[in-house]
């Protein structure tokens, strides 16, 4: 048998995905499509927030939604019921989406006229932050029952985010949740991130978030 | 599971390197894992055994893990300290104005092949 060859690689496991994500972003820019990646822990309110967002924006922007669930399709059906095109992405048990999986989803979602594509990532605060999906902007939802110290415990998630939505503020009185402290922790990890408190259940604060998103889409497509 | 996703990405990267270097069979992959990368080495090698078996190129190969120490830098006093022992608070000056210098790497260092 031949001698063993050693090939030096010295490459981050994420490097290859980063490259594909950058390519996807370039293509989206050319095609005038804005991709938003929405992340959070399971049950923080991604689907509820998206339903509200779509209500506010669907008459002015053509929206398509990709729902990444490990198995079920309830979220995709909820979005279809809200009146936007939506598809289910099959993650095959994976805990995150990478740029290739996102591209496949977009190919299925977009038949010419989507201006704003939204990806509801898998409910998980760890891996989705490590894998660039090719999105133009990243948003994370942190809900009140999870605690105001989440930015300290999952620093990478809050570093990669452009916006942090603090959801379920209606239940703040029942939890030891300090919004000012939470903002401070986000700032420690990412001084540029915007923090918007919302209640997806009633729609409170969602208009501020929709304003931000509308402006981002306009800028990207101009 | 987080580790399984990482393993799929390692295999993808190894396949790309193998194609570039015309390798037919890989005997080992050496991985550098930061102490605070959040990846659990034992789970990773378990996932590796399972996933590698499905790839002609890497089936039966060993995943060797080398740990990289985590070091945090303090902006307040300018010194470095070991992250795992002291977390986010600088042991030199007690300040929390600190950031991770190294320790969250998941790098493919080298590949051994026939
Ligand atoms: N009290 C309160 N409950 C909310 C709010 N937003 C969402 N919820 C509830 O939280 C639960 C989870 O909401 P979803 O929107 O399904 O959360 P998700 O992040 O999409 O969940 P997964 O897709 O399973 O990760 C539901 O029972 C919602 O009704 C809120 O602002 N206040
Ligand atoms: Mg959902
Ligand atoms: Zn993962
Ligand atoms: Zn110090």
Describe the structure concisely for a colleague.
Chain A is 40% helix and 22% strand. Chain A is α/β, with parallel strands linked by helices and 222 residues long. In chain A, strands 4-3-5-2-6-7-8 form a seven-stranded parallel β-sheet, sandwiched between helices.
Distance between the termini of chain A: 61 Å
Main pleated-sheet profile of chain B: 3 strands, mixed
Full CATH superfamily name of chain A: P-loop containing nucleotide triphosphate hydrolases
- Arrangement of strands in the largest sheet of chain B: 2-1-6
Secondary structural class of chain A: alpha/beta
Mean pLDDT of chain B: 93
Distance between termini of chain B? 31 Å
**CATH class descriptor name of chain A:** Alpha Beta
Give the CATH architecture of chain B.
2-Layer Sandwich
Q: Write out the distinct hetero groups bound to the structure.
A: guanosine-5'-triphosphate, magnesium ion, zinc ion
Please state the structural category of chain B.
alpha+beta
Share in helix of chain B: 25-40%
Tell the overall outline of chain B: elongated
User: What proportion of the residues of chain A form beta strands (DSSP E)?
Assistant: 15-25%
Quaternary organisation: heterodimer
- Domain count of chain B, please report it: 1
